Amino acid sequence: MVSKFRKKQKGEINHNFFASFFVRIFLLAIIIFLIFADIKIYGEKKKFDLQVDNLEKKVQSIKEENNKLKEGIAKIDDKDYIEKIAREELDLQMQDEKVVSFIMPESQKKEEINTDNNFWNFKNWLGWISNSWRWMTSFNK
């Protein structure tokens, strides 16, 4: 009887290690964990990209406002510009000049009629029932 005994070489890999059930479950768990971590990181990246876009828009609007203010500073010596600002923003007038103001009467608030065309709107049904009840009780008086 000759046994098939073979001496293990130094660099030889045991192929049964990856065939083990627990190793496969462990590798599968790691892969699933990495997938979920990647999805979470992707969502955070999208959120930060939106924040960056909003901040870039704010920077752009501040730059535009800054340019307008620079134009206003450049016009500070212009007499026509000063007069325009004094009349419009400060309500000032020239000497011997009369200012006419029109006071408009406040518009009377009309009863708001609900114009929703939604058949299932609960408020529409209550309004219809209420108006019908008033109409029916008006005959009894």
Features:
mainly alpha, 141 residues, 0% strand, flat
Number of strands: 0
Q: How far from one another are the termini?
A: 122 Å
Beta percentage is under 5%
Give the helix/strand class.
Answer: mainly alpha
State the major sheet.
none
Helix amount: 55-70%
The number of helical segments is 3
Question: What gross morphology would you assign?
Answer: flat
Rg over CA atoms: 40 Å
- How do the helices and strands follow one another from N- to C-terminus? HHH
Ranges where pLDDT stays below 50 over 5 or more residues in a row are none
> What is the residue-mean pLDDT, rounded to a whole number?
79
Description:
The protein is mainly alpha-helical and 141 residues long. It has three helices and no strands. It starts with 20 loop residues before the first helix and ends with a helix.
Short description:
The protein is mainly α.
Summarize the SSE layout with pairings.
Blueprint: H1 21-74, H2 79-88, H3 122-138
